[in-house]
Amino acid sequence: MPCILHIETATDLCSVAVSEDGQTIFKQESDGGAAQAQRLGSMVDEALSFTDSHAIPFDAVSVSCGPGSYTGLRIGVSMAKGVCYGRNLPLIALPTLEVLCVPVLLQHDDLPDDALLCPMIDARRMEVYCALYTRSLKPVSETEAKVIDADSFRDVLAQRPVWFFGGGAEKCKGVIQHPNAHFIDGIRPLARYMAPLAEKKHANADFSDVAYFEPFYLKDFVATVSKKNLLETGNPG
What we know:
Helix content: 25-40%
Radius of gyration: 18 Å
Strand order of the largest sheet: 3-2-1-4-5
Distance between the termini: 48 Å
Largest sheet: 5 strands, mixed
Number of helices: 6
């Protein structure tokens, strides 16, 4: 199994981890906020020092690629690229919404077979960025910006139970009240949860081009939703 450095900065939580043979051997986590850039650099330095002191060579770097904060993603991806260039390592890009699903699958193995997972990243007002996955992380719907109201996910909820979680799910509790809607608190994207996804991509040699890779910024979603609202209602907000 490979040794991989993981970097997650898609939200205001900044985290770094190292996994080897499927186990987390190093982790650092911090509510970075405005100091995220400074904190991430020292956390990555500590991870590199740890592996160097134990003579453990890296096989790849994985980075959470969004959707997420423009500043956070820019900092995380820049750091990941720098390590890749400096150590001649391949880059693995992981969708942030898939990373959010990992702790749910690890901590809630009693979910029914037909359960759908809906990770949510918070945005402005009642807007979230979300996708639907099966328990095997097969996408049922693509990542999208969605304004939540009482009818959101109505068709899906009429057929299958859905578990909502992540930073955007909290504000949806009082709005989505279908019997098939379930909410899980305390789920945040962390670098230590990236290992199983990154190891699978590494095994398949599913790498991103270090020179040209760009993350999936929330601003891209905002522009898409504003254009859609303008076309449908004449109101860009």
